[in-house]
Design goal:
Strand 3 and strand 4 form a beta hairpin. Helix 11 crosses helix 13 and helix 12 crosses helix 13. The protein is elongated, with a radius of gyration of 39 Å. The strands form two sheets. The protein has a four-stranded mixed β-sheet. The chain has a two-stranded parallel sheet with strand order 1-2. The longest helix has 20 residues. Helix content is 49%, strand content 12%. Among the domains are: 136 residues, no CATH class; 96 residues, 2-Layer Sandwich (Nucleotidyltransferase, domain 5). By secondary structure, it is α/β, with parallel strands linked by helices. The structure holds zinc ion (ZN). Zinc ion binds next to helix 14. Zinc ion (ZN) binds next to helix 14.
Length: 356
């Protein structure tokens, strides 16, 4: 087996159709692969491609599926760059691969990102505006009059008639004398509701701090001419989850009716009272530091308050504070509190004393 390895050119370099510029086809696979093991593997891949081809009306189904595959434009660009690098790799296999300036390794360059973006725009246009692009290709080759708009199938025929380049369909205009970047002067036309267009709008929206519709449109118009721009941007912004969360109204709490004791008029203060503890409060006693707690008595009718100090959290400290409160403000008709153990035990002690 090892002595046959050096002859297995297909194993080390891959099938020749990968290095070919011609589009992938059945003839390339069946004619060039002779190894039975590799052939069986490649046949599986070929079956997948042919399956996709049946379900798609476009000429490049694999690439069109790539546009629908990602949920972020950044990831789509990355995948296209890796595909371009793989293409470069197949051309220059065995050369410059381990150098630091190799074009198929390292971080993505600005040029690679721009090329990938242009390729994505071309794919979107091929996917959505293929009928009109074919018309323009025919028009450029045979030269029918541009006023023949009946052949145009797209509802955006008017804009497409202004395109000046077939490679990337761009908007025309009268700014040729103005010194602007080509993208600004002739922005690329994009369909409004294509998945990749939505990703592009979403990226611009997120990169600029989830800005509003007008601002997103202004940024997009610097490079792209998205048809029905306003509604396309509005649709993407409506589905943006961070914006939804930020603009959501806070929930309102349903308040119950006030209890009857809060509404008793004509009684003296602290006739119906509530008691609770607060603290801990550290106090100086001589040269030592002691713990003390505040006891707050509130009148449920007038909201007046009476404060006492408790030396601890036990029952006797609470009863002492309560007796001081009663001595000052008179005995309340009802006392309310939470289920603190000192309150429950104090209540029980008072009831026992009264019963006895
Ligand atoms: Zn947002």
């Amino acid at each position: 087996m090892p002595d046959k390895c050096h002859k297995a050119d297909c194993w080390f370099k891959g099938p020749p159709f990968l290095r070919s510029k011609e589009p992938l086809g059945k003839s390339h696979i069946s004619e060039t692969i002779e190894d039975s093991e590799i052939c069986s593997e490649v046949k599986v891949n070929y079956n997948e491609i042919s399956y996709n081809d049946k379900n798609s009306t476009t000429q490049q189904p694999g690439l069109m599926l790539l546009l629908e595959r990602y949920s972020k434009f950044e990831r789509l660009i990355s995948s296209v760059i890796w595909l371009q690098r793989f293409k470069t790799y197949t051309y220059m296999i065995g050369k410059l691969l381990h150098r630091s300036d190799s074009p198929v390794t390292g971080c993505f360059t600005v040029a690679e990102r721009e090329n990938a973006t242009i390729d994505i725009v071309k794919l979107i246009q091929t996917d959505s505006l293929s009928a009109d692009l074919c018309y323009f290709k025919d028009m450029m080759s045979s030269g029918p009059p541009p006023s023949d708009r009946k052949r145009l199938k797209s509802p955006f025929a008017k804009e497409l008639l202004q395109c000046n380049r077939y490679v990337v369909c761009r908007v025309g205009g009268r700014l040729r004398q103005f010194e602007l970047q080509p993208d600004h002067r002739n922005p690329a036309i994009l369909p409004p509701y294509h998945h990749a267009t939505k990703l592009l709008i979403d990226t611009v929206h997120c990169e600029h701090g989830h800005c509003g519709s007008n601002q997103v449109q202004a940024y997009l118009l610097q490079k792209y001419w998205i048809l029905h721009l306003q509604s396309a941007v509005a649709k993407v912004l409506r589905e943006c989850m961070p914006c939804k969360i930020r603009s959501a109204r806070p929930g309102k709490q349903w308040m119950s009716d006030m209890p009857a004791v809060r509404l008793c008029a004509g009684n003296r203060p602290f006739f119906h009272s509530f008691v609770d503890y607060f603290g801990l409060i550290k106090v100086k006693l001589g040269r030592s530091e002691r713990k003390r707690y505040g006891v707050i008595f509130t009148c449920l009718s007038t909201r007046a308050i009476h404060l006492e100090v408790a030396e601890s959290l036990d029952t006797s400290a609470f009863l002492q504070a309560f007796f001081r409160f009663v001595s000052r403000r008179a005995r309340p008709a009802h006392m309310y509190s939470d289920n603190g153990t000192n309150f429950i035990a104090g209540s029980k002690a008072l009831k026992d004393e009264i019963t006895n």
